[in-house]
Description:
Elements: E1 2-10, E2 17-20, H1 22-32, E3 37-43, E4 48-53, H2 57-70, H3 88-97, E5 100-106, E6 109-110, E7 117-122, E8 129-137
Antiparallel strand pairs: 1-8, 2-7, 3-5, 3-8, 4-7, 5-6
Amino acid sequence: MKSYKKELWFNxxxxxxLINITGEVEKCxxxxxxxxxxxxxxxxxxxxxxxxxxxxxxxxNDFEKWLEGLAPEKxxxxxxxxxxxxxxxxxxKRTIMGREVVVAISDGKLDFGPWERIFYGEFDGKRxxxxxxxxxxx
Length: 138
Ligand code: ZN
């Protein structure tokens, strides 16, 4: 069995941002030379997510509104977690958007449904954060 690991780095210019990372993950898959197996992709921080959904700007605006409705950033005093930090909302947003995705690899490709794309969801950005890509197979 072959095994491959890579860390992808992100540093968003805004506090919250959704980034399509499908291309970068596909580069990892090509580098790994694995054609049959499983790919894991996870955020390594507890205020960021990796998830699969549609690359459609209306939907991305809907995610922002929906998440702000569930866990608004402000007032910071709303969250017991906020004292030393101000990212209570980001922890909650990350939890609902998920930590990781697992994608099947078939014939050397990510075995997606028709509109599936992989996204990095940043909820407390403006600093360097990592995503782990781990691929196993043959
Ligand atoms: Zn925190």
